[in-house]
From TrEMBL:
Cellular-component GO terms for this entry: nucleus
Domain of life of the organism encoding this protein: Eukaryota
Family: Belongs to the MT-A70-like family.
One function term, GO molecular function aspect: methyltransferase activity
Pfam families cross-referenced by the UniProt entry: MT-A70 (PF05063)
Organism: Arthrobotrys conoides
One of the GO BP terms on file: methylation
InterPro entries: DNA_methylase_N6_adenine_CS, MT-A70-like, SAM-dependent_MTases_sf
Signal peptide stretch: none
PROSITE patterns: MT_A70, N6_MTASE
Protein name: MT-A70-domain-containing protein
Length: 402
């Protein structure tokens, strides 16, 4: 079955329930096909319960009780109304392959020959401070004709001004090719050290138009991250979540813009976000989107009632406090935008921590018909978006396509 370019298999972007294929939601050139990056789950996982039988997080258990029936009723809709789309992404070569734990990297997460962008950046920080180019934005068109060094890409904003995909050659330990989407731009580097670059380009003091949508997927610290041995643990171990206070969200948003932030189920970090970070950013909660992780047959990836873990994650959506109510939306174009509401997204997990690309389902809610969007802590580039993170090019390595 041919998947749509926005990854929406069933439903409309403004529906309460949407079924998405994560891989086909990612920006990809029409002349290439993405390889299956991980064998999808065909049966639910069996997750050991705490020895005490009690939940680690009583507040999570209480929140779950309030949303349980909503999730269950929408799972029933998935099985009944969306059944013609099941199973999802199940090719013959993957039918007998099972994943034991979606939270731990498997061999399927890494392709032979894929460069480890995190490892190569470890020693770049000090050198970059002394030798980096002071240009804020660099046009990739001249650079695409020859291989450029990772040092030259690190810490500066690069963009593809063309309406076509571009192949960028980057020299790390050897030469690698990356596919750059049309009208996209990126900043490669850790959040804290490259934050000044972001502020210089998109801060309140600049003349740059604000973003319609700013999306963040911070590496929230948790038990599994502490135990992790996969290479993504580096990203978590080197990030201080309190540095998020340094990000002036409202100064980088346009009138009526939206900020979205992916949340784990940790009550500690949820409280931090809702009671400290969002008020500091001068934004407030307007909706929650719940990504329910399913097998290819539409079942939760593990028991919905597991006392310690839940088979879903939440996207918190907020607007600047002065524009959260309809009366605050002064632009005429804002009046044509859909009101944000709670939503369920069903999708089968792909590689570790990869989220469904939201480009297709967020657009109807944004204040401008040709929106400017930004993803922070990104691990892939999105057509027309600005993306920033220390793995921002990872999923655009040429080796991920046939």
């Amino acid at each position: 079955m041919q998947q749509p370019s926005d990854g929406i298999i069933h439903g409309h972007p403004t529906d309460e329930v949407v079924l998405i294929d994560i891989v086909s939601s990612l920006s990809s050139p029409s002349f290439l096909q993405r390889k299956p990056s991980k064998a999808p789950l065909t049966v639910p996982l069996v997750i050991p319960e705490p020895q005490s039988g009690e939940p680690f997080d009583p507040a999570l258990a209480e929140r779950h009780t309030k949303r349980r029936e909503w999730i269950k009723s929408n799972l029933a809709r998935l099985q009944n109304e969306f059944s013609q789309h099941l199973p999802l992404r199940l090719s013959e070569q993957l039918q007998n392959t099972l994943i034991n734990d979606p939270g731990v990297q498997s061999a399927d997460d890494v392709y032979n020959g894929e460069p480890d962008l995190l490892a190569f950046q470890e020693n770049l920080g000090a050198a970059w401070v002394s030798y980096h180019d002071t240009d804020i934005q660099v046009d990739l068109v001249p650079a695409s004709l020859q291989a450029i060094s990772l040092v030259d890409i690190y810490g500066s904003i690069h963009y593809n001004p063309l309406s076509d995909w571009m192949t960028l050659k980057v020299t790390i330990d050897k030469e690698y090719e990356y596919m750059i989407p049309p009208k996209s731009s990126f900043l490669l580097g850790p959040f804290t050290s490259t934050l000044p670059v972001f502020k210089s380009a998109f801060g309140k003091s600049t003349n740059t138009p604000g973003f319609d949508f700013i999306l963040l997927d911070p590496p929230w610290n948790n038990r599994s991250a502490k135990r992790a041995t996969h290479r993504d643990s580096y990203k978590t171990s080197t990030f201080n979540v309190y540095d998020l206070f340094k990000l002036n969200v409202t100064g980088s948003l346009c009138d009526g813009g939206i900020v979205g932030i992916w949340m784990t189920n940790s009550t500690k970090w949820r409280t931090f976000l809702l009671e400290k970070l969002l008020p500091a950013w001068k934004v407030e909660l307007v909706a929650e989107w719940t990504w329910v992780k399913t097998t290819v047959h539409g079942e939760p990836i593990f028991d919905l009632e597991h006392p310690a873990r839940k088979p879903y994650e939440t996207l918190i959506l907020a607007r600047p406090i002065s524009t959260t109510r309809p009366s605050g939306l002064s632009s005429s174009s804002n009046n044509n935008r859909q009101n944000l509401q709670d939503k369920v997204i069903f999708a089968t997990p792909d590689i570790h921590s990869r989220k469904p690309c939201l480009k297709g389902i967020i657009k109807p809610y944004l204040p401008n018909s040709d929106p400017r969007c930004c993803e922070i802590f990104a691990r892939n580039l999105t057509e027309g978006w600005f993306s920033w993170g220390n793995e921002v090019l990872r999923s655009n390595w040429r080796g991920f396509w046939t």
